[in-house]
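Input structure tokens:
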């Protein structure tokens, strides 16, 4: 089985009739297999919690990847991400495959560094690097010994001329043809990057998705003569356009919730925060005083007065969403707004750095994720309706004939047959 994750792909983006010619492989694959109208994602609707759910079948509160960042300090300049599989508190699909003596491979898959994957080039980079896509040293250090050099030697003629998805597509074909894994996981990222910068339906984002579509087509062609292989294309979350930017940290600083360094710069005190674009999680890193609590309440009230906040989610609401158990609260951005990590400047910016984002509640229109599967045991043209990201791991295990009881999920697999 080959699983291709197109980061940020909302189903209606490629399904729009006027775009069928742009994405012939996605639409052909959907006609040839079973697909969900949409997948409900997790909260926050971001890449790392969602990919952990895709692989484990459980929500963030259970698998332990609550956000993309491993650091809760918003004043830290180079914050590490949740790159390492050791942080997972639930078995992943690769664990199930290994227990069944299946050979696994992964390219740039989130939360996979150090995982029990036979052939692994994980998604990881130096957080201080100006461009993660040009940091080859860090993933090489954490890859299966010798594999990074083997693959980059093949890709050398393309370096500097191809986008990240072209490179990953060619690397995936090489691993499939030369190492024959039973399970291959590939993470495509270029659409997500362009959708952030220019918006999810922008010309630049659609061109990036065309690149992913071509890579999908080449992989599909390569396995077309193999009757035993299933191809899955999915995504982790959707995307929406934004018009304004709100910077909660600016208000938190004004209300004295951060300390000041000797040079006047902001420093960590008791308040932690992680921005997810469409939401922001707020943490008490030490027991707050009554005055601290009043300051936070005043800052949140002031932020709500700007119109940038749709909802303040308390601990009870987060528990119901199976989200971060450590957060004191999460701020949900109002439609058209995204949150920023800025520590200074105006609270509301009329010209946001990014024109598109995600991270909102799963119920927020546009956060829907994609699922398509085509293979020997999959009904052609079947509509799976609205499904959940938590159903993907047991579905993939079932397709491969793996024992589903190793997974911690209680979700039933999707029925891909007629």
């Amino acid at each position: 089985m080959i699983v291709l994750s197109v980061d940020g792909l909302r189903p209606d983006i490629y399904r729009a009739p006027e775009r069928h010619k742009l994405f012939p492989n996605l639409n052909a694959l959907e006609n040839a297999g079973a697909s969900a109208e949409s997948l409900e994602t997790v909260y926050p609707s971001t890449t790392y919690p969602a990919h952990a759910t895709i692989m484990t079948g459980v929500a963030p509160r259970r698998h332990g990847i609550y956000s993309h960042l491993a650091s809760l300090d918003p004043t830290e300049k180079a914050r590490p991400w949740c790159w390492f599989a050791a942080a997972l508190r639930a078995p992943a699909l690769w664990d199930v495959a290994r227990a069944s003596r299946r050979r696994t491979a992964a390219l740039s898959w989130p939360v996979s560094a150090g995982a029990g994957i036979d052939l692994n080039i994980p998604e990881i980079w130096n957080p201080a690097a100006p461009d993660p896509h040009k940091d080859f040293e860090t993933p090489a250090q954490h890859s299966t010994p010798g594999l990074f050099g083997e693959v980059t030697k093949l890709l050398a003629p393309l370096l500097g001329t191809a986008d990240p998805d072209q490179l990953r597509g060619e690397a995936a074909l090489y691993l499939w043809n030369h190492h024959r894994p039973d399970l291959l996981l590939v993470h495509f990222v270029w659409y997500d990057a362009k959708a952030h910068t220019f918006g999810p339906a922008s010309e630049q984002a659609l061109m990036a998705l065309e690149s992913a579509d071509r890579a999908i087509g080449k992989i599909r062609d390569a396995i077309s003569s193999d009757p035993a292989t299933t191809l899955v294309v999915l995504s982790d979350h959707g995307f929406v356009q934004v018009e304004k930017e709100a910077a909660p940290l600016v208000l938190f600083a004004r209300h004295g919730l951060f300390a000041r360094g000797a040079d006047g710069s902001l420093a960590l005190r008791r308040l932690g925060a992680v921005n997810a674009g469409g939401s922001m999680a707020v943490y008490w890193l030490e027991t707050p005083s009554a005055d601290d609590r009043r300051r936070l309440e005043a800052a949140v009230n002031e932020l709500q007065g700007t119109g940038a906040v749709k909802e303040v989610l308390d601990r009870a609401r987060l528990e119901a969403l199976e989200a971060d158990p450590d957060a004191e609260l999460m701020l949900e951005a109002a439609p058209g707004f995204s949150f920023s990590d800025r520590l200074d400047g105006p609270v509301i910016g009329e010209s946001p750095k990014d024109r598109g984002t995600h991270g909102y509640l799963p119920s927020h229109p546009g956060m829907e994720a994609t699922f398509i599967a085509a293979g020997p045991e999959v009904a052609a043209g079947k509509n799976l309706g609205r499904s959940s990201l938590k159903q993907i791991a047991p579905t993939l295990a079932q397709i491969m004939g793996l024992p589903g009881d190793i997974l911690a999920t209680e979700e039933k697999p999707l029925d891909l047959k007629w």
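The radius of gyration is 21 Å. The mean pLDDT is 97.
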